[in-house]
Design a protein that fits this description.
It is built from eight helices and nine strands. By secondary structure, it is of the alpha/beta class. It is globular. It starts with a strand and ends with a helix.
Amino acid sequence: MKISVIVPVFNEKGTIEEVLRRIKNVKIEKEIIVVDDYSTDGTRQLLKGIKDKEIKVLFHSRNRGKGAAIRTAQTYIAGDVVIIQDADLEYEPKDYLNLVKPIKNGRADVVYGSRFFGVHKFSSFWHYFGNKFLTWVTNVLYRARLTDMETCYKAFKASMFLDLNIKAKRFDFEPEITARILKANLRVVEVPITYFGRCYEGGKKITWKDGLMALWTLLKYRFVD
């Protein structure tokens, strides 16, 4: 089983090389698709210097957002399973093996890595509470039983991921993809992952405005396609 790891990146000069090193260290057949969303801190220059047959680097000509970066990567997917990987150090690629196992065993179409099951450290109470609230809203609206809707770590059967018609451009990717998965009645399994959230001083980009957008996205896709 080959996995396609999509890495959307924007202004992560201090972490992108270590993230890629950790991904490469995972003992599984894989391809790595990095999409630079018009970084301005030197990340772009680092990525241009990569010469590795496992890593494909794509560049946006302007800043378009995380969702747009993931959509750009879709065209280049050649694996059996797709995993999304943030370019910071909040998530541990060593968890890939647990993420793909339910799909490999035929028990799931999609696997969510739940930060609330595993070892975790959130950057603030409000970030923790916001994630809990948005997950609760998801469960109420879509009659689901998730514990972590906003997790970055989602693994998909590639064929199904390519059929989901993603429209999100920014951080609304997580609620939109979840809404589409649940409305399609795909089999979703959650597994524990390790998570160490960084603070805003350390480069965290998601804000309360993105939380409001996530709420609106969940409501919107509950009643429209």
